[in-house]
């Protein structure tokens, strides 16, 4: 273990307790966190799984320069029609970025968070990043600011970050061992030189860990992002999870590698594959013993706008925002009212689903082991089932069991290929959707057409449009109960359902 | 003696703030180096700063027209493999 480098001999054992959403019937994976942390993430769609149903975020691309190279990144930011991390269509000056944020916040009142995430590293562009933050702190005090960094320049920027009252930082940490790091980072730029290989990786790791500690000491929440690269850091990420938790990170987000040859990245060109749904979830489950895991990340574009999983960026291009007249004082009043309504709605949903969990458990007290079931849900947000099957570009996957309803992850339908050899040209959109829903037994949506209905049934996935506009977790619990009552859940389990999501 | 930025530059801004001579400036379609100001960092740094942070192979040339970061040197992708991948992609 390379921790000696960092001056720490041993790590405390992972604290017990529950990190999953289902614990105690709570619907929020962050339920185990102290109150002051929960208050900070309550409205943050990227941190709180529950909040992401209700609140929107936006990113502004003001920080194009980077001080390291990652093998999964190609710093071209002009690809049209692509949605993947690091890709943007418009690089903004800080002035334009501020204008855009005010325009979006006024037009999408659910927007609570502004993040700077790249392309490039925000802290390798401190002037542009902090100019943006400074102006927003002044002009839009009701918007939370956050930043995502590779960590190399983090220690030297922590003081400046604290000045701007930023309470969340995301650090991408893919390894804590320079041997592994050398396979992910070909070089870093450090002290006016390019440093390659293991030496560079070692410096990066030291800076990341130091920055993480400095932030948590100052009460700033740190989420750690890790890219799961099969054969490179898959096993190692369990160690990463332990180490970053010990240093105070409150949430770990393991994301699948995206590597297509046409992206021109090292991994893409060299044929490195991304993980399967199974591999990603298995690893998330293993790390979950150590800390809260994030499962709703959509790996959004570096200039994404709107709810997670959607992108309304096209409504707010530079020429469009130039024409908008924004009265931010009025917008702030409206935002306040919208947020209050969202909170009232959340509270009502929480009470309601609390009741349904109780009745779910009490209805089946003496039955034998019921197997868990995966269900897919089509939603545009709000925490309710409100999307037509054919319009869904992604499905949220929940696992229902006799104990609880647990959010497992999301599956994108057509944004990019999710891997697998079965993906060929002859496959229709519907066939692809059905393949992506593999392992799910029910799909809940507001409506569904006749043709997909038949094909889904044939594939062993029951379409269900009976719970339109109902809260997701409640509907999942009801459907599970109905399946139990119909005796569908007692047959022997062929393979563990949880592993197939 | 002066370095030169060529068209493969993606305008990522990484080099501009590092130049000790303020020789690099934003231009279209790509950044440029003012040959009268460029010192190749001599007297300031042991390595030319722009070439040391540039992520794009071949985008910065020396006075003799040679790439300071030749193909394969930054990404680790062997040039032959890259050519193969391009052929594969175009054949789709």
UniProtKB/TrEMBL annotation, chain A:
CDD domains: NifB, Radical_SAM
GO molecular function: 4 iron, 4 sulfur cluster binding; lyase activity; metal ion binding
Residues forming coiled coils: none
Known pathway: Cofactor biosynthesis; Fe-Mo cofactor biosynthesis
Residue ranges occupied by any Radical SAM core domain in the UniProt entry: 52-301
Keyword terms: 4Fe-4S, Iron, Iron-sulfur, Lyase, Metal-binding, Nitrogen fixation, S-adenosyl-L-methionine
Known cofactor(s): [4Fe-4S] cluster
Keyword Metal-binding: yes
A Pfam entry, by short name: Nitro_FeMo-Co
Xref: SUPFAM superfamilies: Nitrogenase accessory factor-like, Radical SAM enzymes
Stated family: Belongs to the radical SAM superfamily. NifB family.
Task performed by this protein: Involved in the biosynthesis of the iron-molybdenum cofactor (FeMo-co or M-cluster) found in the dinitrogenase enzyme of the nitrogenase complex in nitrogen-fixing microorganisms. NifB catalyzes the crucial step of radical SAM-dependent carbide insertion that occurs concomitant with the insertion of a 9th sulfur and the rearrangement/coupling of two [4Fe-4S] clusters into a [8Fe-9S-C] cluster, the precursor to the M-cluster.
Protein name stated in the entry: FeMo cofactor biosynthesis protein NifB
TrEMBL record, chain B:
Cofactors that this protein relies on: [4Fe-4S] cluster
Pfam families membership: Fer4 (PF00037)
UniProt keyword 4Fe-4S present: yes
InterPro entries named in the record: 4Fe4S_Fe-S-bd (IPR017896), 4Fe4S_Fe_S_CS (IPR017900)
Domain spans labelled 4Fe-4S ferredoxin-type: 1-30
GO MF annotations, alphabetized: 4 iron, 4 sulfur cluster binding; metal ion binding
Keywords of the record: 4Fe-4S, Electron transport, Iron, Iron-sulfur, Metal-binding, Transport
Full protein name: 4Fe-4S binding protein
Species the sequence originates in: Thioalbus denitrificans
């Amino acid at each position: 273990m390379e921790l000696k480098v960092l001056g720490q001999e041993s790590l405390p054992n992972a604290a017990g307790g529950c990190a999953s959403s289902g614990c105690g019937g709570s619907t929020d994976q962050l339920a185990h966190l102290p109150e002051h942390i929960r208050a900070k993430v309550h409205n943050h769609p990227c941190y709180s799984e529950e909040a992401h149903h209700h609140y929107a975020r936006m990113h502004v691309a003001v920080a194009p320069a980077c001080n390291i190279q990652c093998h999964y990144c190609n710093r071209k930011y002009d690809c049209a029609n692509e949605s993947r991390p690091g890709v943007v269509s418009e690089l903004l000056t800080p002035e334009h970025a501020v204008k855009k944020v005010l325009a979006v916040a006024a037009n999408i009142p659910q927007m609570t968070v502004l993040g700077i995430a790249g392309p490039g590293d925000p802290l390798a562009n401190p002037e542009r990043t902090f100019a943006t933050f400074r102006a927003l702190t002044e002009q839009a005090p009701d918007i939370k600011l956050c930043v995502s960094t590779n960590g190399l320049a983090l220690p030297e920027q922590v003081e400046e970050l604290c000045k701007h009252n930023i309470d969340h930082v995301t650090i991408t940490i893919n390894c804590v061992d320079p041997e592994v790091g050398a396979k992910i980072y070909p070089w870093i730029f450090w002290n006016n030189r390019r440093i390659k290989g293991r030496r560079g990786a070692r410096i990066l790791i030291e800076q990341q860990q130091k920055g993480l500690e400095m932030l948590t000491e100052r009460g700033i929440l740190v989420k750690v992002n890790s890219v799961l690269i099969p054969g490179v850091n898959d096993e190692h990420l369990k160690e990463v999870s332990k180490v970053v938790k010990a240093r105070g990170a409150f949430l770990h987000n393991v994301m699948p590698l995206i590597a297509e040859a046409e992206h021109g990245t090292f991994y893409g060109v060299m044929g490195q594959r991304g993980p399967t749904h199974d591999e990603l979830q298995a690893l998330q489950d293993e790390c979950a013993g150590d800390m809260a895991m994030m499962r709703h990340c959509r790996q959004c574009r570096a200039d994404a706008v709107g709810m997670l999983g959607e992108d309304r960026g096209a409504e707010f291009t530079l020429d469009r925002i130039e024409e908008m007249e924004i009265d931010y004082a009025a917008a702030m009043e409206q935002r306040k009212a919208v947020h209050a309504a969202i909170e009232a709605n959340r509270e009502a949903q929480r009470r309601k689903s609390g009741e349904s969990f109780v009745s779910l458990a009490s209805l089946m007290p003496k039955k034998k082991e019921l197997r868990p079931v995966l269900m897919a849900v089509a939603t545009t947000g709000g925490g309710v089932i409100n999307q037509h099957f054919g319009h869904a570009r992604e499905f949220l996957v929940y696992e229902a069991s006799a104990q609880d309803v647990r959010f497992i992850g999301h599956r994108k339908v057509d944004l990019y290929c999710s891997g697998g050899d079965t993906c060929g040209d002859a496959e229709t959109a519907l066939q692809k959707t059905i393949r992506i829903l593999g392992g799910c037994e029910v799909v809940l949506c507001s409506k569904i057409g006749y043709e997909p209905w038949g094909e889904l049934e044939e594939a062993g996935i029951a379409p269900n449009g009976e719970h339109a506009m109902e809260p997701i977790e409640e509907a999942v619990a009801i459907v599970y109960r109905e399946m139990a009552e119909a005796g569908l859940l007692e047959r022997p389990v062929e393979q563990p359902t949880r592993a197939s999501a | 003696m002066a370095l030169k930025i060529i068209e493969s530059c993606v305008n990522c801004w990484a080099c501009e703030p590092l130049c000790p001579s303020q020789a690099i400036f934003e231009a279209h379609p790509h950044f440029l180096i003012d040959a009268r100001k460029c010192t190749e960092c001599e007297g300031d740094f042991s390595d030319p700063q722009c070439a040391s942070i540039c992520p794009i192979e071949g985008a910065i040339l020396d006075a003799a027209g040679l790439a300071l970061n030749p193909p394969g040197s930054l990404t680790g992708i062997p040039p032959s493999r890259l050519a193969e991948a391009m052929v594969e992609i175009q054949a789709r």
